[in-house]
TrEMBL record:
Transmembrane intervals: 12-30, 101-121, 141-159, 171-192, 231-256, 276-299
The name this protein goes by in its record: ABC transporter permease
Organism of origin: Prauserella endophytica
Sequence ranges assigned to domain ABC transmembrane type-1 in this UniProt record: 95-292
Keyword Transmembrane: yes
SUPFAM superfamilies reported in the protein's UniProt record: MetI-like
Length: 308
């Protein structure tokens, strides 16, 4: 296992290196000048050039890139001209809000999607099975930002029962967490349904029934346990998607997390904060994939780490 983890970590280094390179180039290719945003429209050409030199933007792009690589290795992204202070510290300050939102969304996905999938599998071909399929497809098809806006209009503006933005109360999590979870509820429900039906048709289920085990024991102890293996894999990817998709949801609900911070930093050309936020999201996603692969091995001993 140690060899496998070491090999995956080595691969992760190349992935992080690629992410750093792409983010660096994209942020500097898009139109906009941080110096003009800092000094304003009244600044002279000399003042703008002096500010660019101060920010390190007057050097050739290749020199900026290698200097940036050295800074990233030390987790030193520089100072945020917009927020003040260390850029990475500003990102870490917003991290708990994003993790809280992603955690609530994951809990909703599990508590709703898993039982729906099991119920549909136990009633395959019936009305409830078709209803779960229709609802799951609808949830995946609707754009998240539109769902968020509609939920705000209905539950915050019309009914006035839930807050539309972050106000420090647990209720403020309901709308953004549900909006974030909705596309994945149907995905998980269909995965659980199909996985459960596949397991029910296998030989070990017929053997368990022939031994006189009750249907309840066969289903809950044997079938559901084997269904968990692909579900865990999906949930690891879903959690990574939650952190990435929070960029849009946090904007809709004014949630003070990494996503909204990243968008604000890109708009204001605060390169240091934007790069730190994007790199942290990439590292989280890569780490979650590695954790899921290792957990996959423990859930199904028939699988070796070399084949994952």
């Amino acid at each position: 296992m140690i060899i496998y983890i070491a090999r995956r970590l080595a691969q992760s280094v190349f992935l992080v290196f690629g992410a750093i390179t792409i983010v660096f180039l994209v942020l500097r290719v898009i139109p906009g000048d941080p110096a003009s945003l800092i000094l304003g429209s009244q600044a002279t050409a000399e003042e703008l050039e002096a500010k660019r030199q101060e920010l390190g933007l007057g050097d050739p792009l290749l020199a900026q890139y290698f200097r940036h690589l050295g800074e990233v290795l030390r987790l030193d992204f520089g100072e945020s001209w917009r927020l003040g202070g260390d850029a990475f510290a500003n990102v870490l300050e917003r991290l708990p809000a994003t993790l809280t939102l992603a955690g609530y969304a994951l809990a909703l996905t599990l508590l709703i999607g898993f039982p729906l999938g099991v119920h549909a599998a136990r009633n395959t071909g019936k009305a409830v099975d078709r209803l779960v399929s229709y609802l799951s497809l609808t949830g995946q098809a609707l754009p998240s930002f539109w769902v968020g806006i509609m939920l705000v209009l209905i539950f915050s503006r019309m009914l006035d029962i839930l807050p539309a933005t972050a106000d420090g109360t647990p209720l403020a999590l309901v709308l953004p967490a549900f909006t974030l979870a909705l596309p994945f509820l149907g995905w998980l429900a269909r995965l659980v349904r199909n996985g459960t039906l596949e397991e029910l048709g296998k030989d070990y289920v017929r053997t368990a029934r022939s031994k006189g085990l009750s249907e309840r024991v066969v289903f809950n102890v044997h079938v559901l346990r084997n269904t968990l293996t692909p579900v865990v894999t999906v949930l690891g990817l879903v959690l990574g998607n939650f952190i990435a998709d929070a960029v849009i949801i946090e904007q809709v609900f004014a949630w003070p997390g990494i996503g909204s911070l990243m968008i604000e930093s890109i708009v204001n050309r605060d390169y240091a904060v934007a790069e730190a936020a994007i790199l942290l999201i990439a590292i989280f996603y890569i780490g979650l994939n590695l954790a899921v692969d290792v957990l996959y091995f423990y859930l199904d001993p028939r699988i070796t780490l070399e084949t994952v």
